[in-house]
């Protein structure tokens, strides 16, 4: 039939029939291709041929006197063609041919298989579940249902489409026959929760926890274990008359991996880690001594500490093969809060102005030795400006250290470039004693012993309050510069003290405040210029006024430095 069709197609080819003459051409189709032939054209002209097959131009070239070429095509497909001849020396013999060709052979069949087969599930009662896959380009499904009242056969057939064969060459339809029953419905039960199986150390495993049920039976299969290691499978199988909720009766199984790991050795932390807080940004972590046999090791995490303040975390982590006494294996941790409270040094000694008079250029003051965690910094111009020489002394501390709360840490000494009048005979001193109040009587304040000085004012209130005492140095003597209440010219020292009042009832007498002992430093003077002091002639009223002013002087100590006249 295909061959007859091909012959008819050849007879239908359209071309210009004419007796043989010059400038002629003809396309000839066949089962395997198309022949294009042109002859008797002017060999000196640029003649041209264009061939198009199935809409695609396959040739466009020039020729001389003749042209002859075969173009192949598929024998199993239909084709169209067009041939154009363009005369190079005119248009009289231009030619155009179009035609079609019908496939002369059947295409080879494509092998296929059923990718997804139909499935059937007969559920209880008259219902059943049938799943038929979608048709494909190679085959299509049909269903023949002969059931009555939910009982009978259901036949599903897959039929090939043209051009396809089953894998292996068969073309017969494939069928699946399913039988439906009308069995009473089983009782639906839920799939049980997954049972638990605890793998314990050694070759054994723990007893599984299996939920009790009258609808299914449990089984434990440990046949896959070898030397205590492998898998254990636990299965729940439905008893007759039961079905899983949602359908299905297949057993439900769970698989567990078990090992033969050696049992861990129980251990416990011996001792307790501690962090000793230290003043300043420092602290000390103290850990109990451990060995490999203890089965754990300590680690210290200080990432939470910034500038000496924060939290230090100590962790005890188990080594492999060990467990805590309670069976747990999680690391044990301890947290310690640390602060950066500063350290307090010992009392800060007070610098003193040791030179009362003498030649210019020597050191008029004494600086105590530096402490372990502090040092004195002196700013001394070394010369006098407008008759004054101001010396500043401050205490600098190591990081994390401060002075006691009541100690001074800075002093200012002002020295004056003035002549001495009186030789210095020695250093004057005076003290005042204060006693506490009794149960019914107020406290007392009495002038104490003096050296090279005498008392000029003793003002003590009868019922307690503020007492004032003024001591005057003898001629040629002077009080030590820098002591509280010492005047600029070192000739007087004023004491302003609080005297305790009576309590009026039985009371516990607090220890009386004690005036700090005065360390007497003998004055030093260069041998080349005997020191002198201003004369001490003055009346009592001026001394009282000066004492009141000196009581308000604060921490700045003023020292008058005098220079011997030439």
From TrEMBL:
Highest rank taxon of the organism: Bacteria
> What name goes with this protein?
LPXTG-motif cell wall anchor domain-containing protein
For bias kind Pro residues, which ranges apply? 515-533
Query: Which UniProt keyword terms apply here?
Result: Membrane, Signal, Transmembrane, Transmembrane helix
Show the segment(s) annotated as Disordered: 515-534
Query: What residue intervals traverse the membrane?
Result: 540-559
Q: Which residues form the signal peptide?
A: 1-22
């Amino acid at each position: 039939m295909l061959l007859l069709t091909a012959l008819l197609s050849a007879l239908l080819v359209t071309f210009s029939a004419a007796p043989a003459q010059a400038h002629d051409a003809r396309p000839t189709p066949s089962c395997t291709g198309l022949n294009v032939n042109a002859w008797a054209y002017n060999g000196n002209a640029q003649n041209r041929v264009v061939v198009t097959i199935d809409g695609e131009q396959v040739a466009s070239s020039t020729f001389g006197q003749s042209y002859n070429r075969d173009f192949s095509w598929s024998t199993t497909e239909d084709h169209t063609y067009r041939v154009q001849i363009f005369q190079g020396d005119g248009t009289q013999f231009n030619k155009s041919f179009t035609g079609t060709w019908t496939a002369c052979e059947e295409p080879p069949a494509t092998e296929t298989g059923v990718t997804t087969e139909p499935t059937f599930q007969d559920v209880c009662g008259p219902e059943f579940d049938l799943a038929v896959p979608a048709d494909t380009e190679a085959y299509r499904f049909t269903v023949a249902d002969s059931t009555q009242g939910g009982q009978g056969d259901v036949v599903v057939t897959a039929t090939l489409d043209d051009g396809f064969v089953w894998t292996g060459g068969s073309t017969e339809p494939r069928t699946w026959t399913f039988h439906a029953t009308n069995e009473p419905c089983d009782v639906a039960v839920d799939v049980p929760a997954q049972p638990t199986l605890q793998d314990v150390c050694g070759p054994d495993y723990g007893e599984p926890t299996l939920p009790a049920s009258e609808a299914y039976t449990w089984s434990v299969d440990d046949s896959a274990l070898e030397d205590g290691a492998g898998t254990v499978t636990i299965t729940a199988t439905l008893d007759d008359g039961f079905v899983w909720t949602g359908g299905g009766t297949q057993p439900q199984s769970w698989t567990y991996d078990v090992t033969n790991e050696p049992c861990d050795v129980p251990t416990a932390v011996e001792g307790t880690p501690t962090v000793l807080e230290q003043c300043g940004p420092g602290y000390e972590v103290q850990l109990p001594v451990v060995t490999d046999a203890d089965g754990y090791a300590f680690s210290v995490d200080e990432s939470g500490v910034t500038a000496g303040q924060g939290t230090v975390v100590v962790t005890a982590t188990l080594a492999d093969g060990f467990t805590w006494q309670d069976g747990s294996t999680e690391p044990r941790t301890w947290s310690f809060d640390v602060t950066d409270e500063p350290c307090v040094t010992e009392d800060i000694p007070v610098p003193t102005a040791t030179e009362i008079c003498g030649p210019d250029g020597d050191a008029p003051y004494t600086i105590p030795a530096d402490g372990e965690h502090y040092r004195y910094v002196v700013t001394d111009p070394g010369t006098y400006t407008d008759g004054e020489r101001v010396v500043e002394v401050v205490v600098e501390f190591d990081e994390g250290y401060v002075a006691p709360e009541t100690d001074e840490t800075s002093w200012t000494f002002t020295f004056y470039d003035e002549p001495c009048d009186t030789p210095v005979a020695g250093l004057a001193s005076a003290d005042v004693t204060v006693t506490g109040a009794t149960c019914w009587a107020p406290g007392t304040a009495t002038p104490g012993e003096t050296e090279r000085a005498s008392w000029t004012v003793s003002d003590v209130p009868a019922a307690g309050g503020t007492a004032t005492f003024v001591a005057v140095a003898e001629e040629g003597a002077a009080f030590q510069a820098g002591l509280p209440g010492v005047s600029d010219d070192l000739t007087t020292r004023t004491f302003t003290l609080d005297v305790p009042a009576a309590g009026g009832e039985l009371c516990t007498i607090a220890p009386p405040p004690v005036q700090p002992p005065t360390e007497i430093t003998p004055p030093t003077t260069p041998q080349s210029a005997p020191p002198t002091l201003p004369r001490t002639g003055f009346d009592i009223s001026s001394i009282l006024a000066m004492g009141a002013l000196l009581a308000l002087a604060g921490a700045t100590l003023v020292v008058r430095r005098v220079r011997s006249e030439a």
